[in-house]
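Internal tracking record. Fields below are filled automatically when a chain is submitted to the structure queue. Please do not edit lines marked as system-generated. If the sequence contains nonstandard residues, flag them in the REMARKS field before resubmitting.
Queue: standard
Priority: normal
Entity type: single polypeptide chain
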Amino acid sequence: MLTPDDLEAWLQAHHVPGEVLRLSQPTPTVAAAAAALGVPPEHILKTIVFIADGEPLVVIARGPERIERRALARALGIGRKRVRTARPDEVLTVTGYPVGGVPPIGHLRPLPTWIDEQVLAVEQAFAGGGSETAMLRIAPRALLRASRGQIATLVRSR
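SYSTEM-GENERATED OUTPUT FOLLOWS
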């Protein structure tokens, strides 16, 4: 299993401007992370692994938003029933990180990444840092470059 140290090493090796913050309390949810960091929930990013046609991919969205499976399927050009959320054991297998601490980048192997367009609305964001007590501080534009992600509308508009 990978750790926050592995994420830090990945950031350095790939020259990605980001910082792994180690916290004294667990941050397994958006609300807990926002409270621990003293930032609005919109500045917390969630990294969700999906399985589409049997292949894993990563979706990144702002914390309070709900990723719409139908919108993801449309972006992928497949039917919605061919997209599902990965199980915790699958997440660990494909990313190397446990659910609750999955960073958006630095996985065991590069994964296709989709980023909801609203992520780019903030200059600085916080995402999983490799464990429930670590967070990655990163600019969304740097995250977009590092992940080689594709931008799409993936959340339900409010």
